[in-house]
Automatic annotation (TrEMBL), chain A:
<dbReference type="Pfam" id="PF01032">
    <property type="entry name" value="FecCD"/>
</dbReference>
<feature type="transmembrane region" description="Helical">
    <location>
        <begin position="87"/>
        <end position="106"/>
    </location>
</feature>
<keyword id="KW-0813">Transport</keyword>
<comment type="similarity">
    <text>Belongs to the binding-protein-dependent transport system permease family. FecCD subfamily.</text>
</comment>
<keyword id="KW-1003">Cell membrane</keyword>
<comment type="function">
    <text>Part of the binding-protein-dependent transport system for heme-iron. Responsible for the translocation of the substrate across the membrane.</text>
</comment>
<feature type="transmembrane region" description="Helical">
    <location>
        <begin position="112"/>
        <end position="131"/>
    </location>
</feature>
<dbReference type="InterPro" id="IPR000522">
    <property type="entry name" value="ABC_transptr_permease_BtuC"/>
</dbReference>
<feature type="transmembrane region" description="Helical">
    <location>
        <begin position="187"/>
        <end position="208"/>
    </location>
</feature>
TrEMBL record, chain B:
<dbReference type="InterPro" id="IPR003439">
    <property type="entry name" value="ABC_transporter-like_ATP-bd"/>
</dbReference>
<keyword id="KW-0067">ATP-binding</keyword>
<dbReference type="Pfam" id="PF00005">
    <property type="entry name" value="ABC_tran"/>
</dbReference>
<feature type="domain" description="ABC transporter">
    <location>
        <begin position="1"/>
        <end position="238"/>
    </location>
</feature>
<keyword id="KW-0547">Nucleotide-binding</keyword>
<protein>
    <submittedName>
        <fullName>Iron ABC transporter ATP-binding protein</fullName>
    </submittedName>
</protein>
<keyword id="KW-0408">Iron</keyword>
<keyword id="KW-0406">Ion transport</keyword>
<keyword id="KW-0813">Transport</keyword>
Amino acid sequence: MTKKILSFIIVGILLVIAIIYAATTGSIQMGFFEFLGALFEKGNSQMEAIRDLRFPRIIVALFAGAALSVSGVLLQSVMRNPLADAGVIGISSGAAFVQLFIIFFFPTLFFMTPILAFLGGALACALVFMLSWKSGLSPLKLILVGIAINAMFTGLTEAFISLGGSLNTSAASVIGSNLTMRTWQDVSMLVTYGTVGLVAAFAVYHWCNLLVLQDKTVKSLGFQVERARLIIAAIAVLLAAVSVVVAGVISFVGLLVPHIARRFVGYDHKVLIPFTALAGALLILVADTIGRTIMTPLEIPASTIMAIIGGPFLIFLLRKE
Amino acid sequence: MEIKDITVSHDNTRNHLDGVSTMIQKGKVTTIIGPNGCGKSTLLSVMSRQRQPHIGRVSLENKDLVRYKPKEFAKKLAIVYQQNDIPKDLTIEKLVSFGRLPYQSMLKRRDEVDEQAIDWALTCTNLLDKRHVDLEALSGGERQRVWIAMALAQQSEILCLDEPTTYLDIYYQIELLNLVKTLNEEHQLTIVMVLHDMNQAIRYSDHLIVMKDGQIVAEGAPTTVMTKEVMKEVYGVDAVFREDEQLGFFMMPVGI
């Protein structure tokens, strides 16, 4: 029990440090006390710039990290598979493809994109499910099917970008998984949908715990396992889709964070889901902050950093299987 | 429980159960035996509603099984399977508490009644002082008892056990069958189980159902059902039956 509380406290402290560091570091530098002073004072031009440029970026990083990580926990529970991750198995790229499609052909539907991207993610998720169901959702098979689905949607997205490159250059920049130039509008979209998803995820923690039992066993307890699966998967896809719409495709977060989180707080989803959300927020904020400060003025996208860490991590998990 | 003219096929090429009819008597121990592939586990899965019969109907207390709501049915009948995956990082108490699921809902979580049922289930299975131990740390016999405890926490009238002794050492087999006997005699549970060992079936059952090729060959009290002829017909084995003062009624296979 104490180990769990300690883990929460440590991640909480690290999160606060990371937020302050991210807010005060970059092309505009500020000391900690200067920052604290400026925070509550109006008319400081440096602070205004931070407020408009850095705060949205920080909030987007935090929520995208939390949403993607919790999405990973839910997918792993539903598919009873430690390797499930929205990015790796193609849910994110399904959502990204639909998002691009909307921007391209139906730009007037812009405010519907999270919902339509959700449908794209749901389609990818349903495909992965159906195609690996026969093999009993074996971890390896699921990953292989997922990689194929992912490749297909990524290919479609890239084809769109190259075809329309001359016509609509903004499309490519919208879809890019870079956290620069995020606005308060992006923040409100992500925070609204993200909060709904995160609260819903916590509300079904009991179901996630039950899904560790075999289907025949939970069924004999009167549990409607198919219905629970569908709802949990829908929440996972929503979380992935909304972060894709605002922050782009970031793979491996949903794989890495839950796996490490289980080491610290165990397998009970009541504790695992909130902890994963915090740890995921921390990871993406750190990745994004490193990416934009390590080689200023050049930036490395958070998704690139995650791919560099995540790839070897997936190999490590596959070897353990 | 009444089972009427049940026919089930897993693959639509042959009938795994072929027109099976029987009655499960309340408060008795009923054991289904027969060679591999005779349909005994299929019959149990039809009774526990895991599988729907293609033809025929099963009713409990004059109500068709399909008309029970899932949780309502889980309060009537609990089942323990022969092989269960052991989840990671789960204590005995936590697993047994899952047995209270039929009594819980989104709004009503664990209460006093649930606690008492969990304590009772742990006491019956002799696991009370191990309640905070992780499942992974248990022996095979203890694990099987934990799954039984979870089923007991459902506080159903009927308890089904699918080959509960198959993967256990002889000591744990006897321990488990004694537990089943106690549950039946002291707590009036109706027991339906599938067993492999004929002498255990004879010793621990009130009623035997002998199956072959998806059909019931014989049923009734063990001493009347188990005969030389039935053994030859069902298993193709020559067997001798003896009544012994100390050993009771028992069977010894002597050849094929």
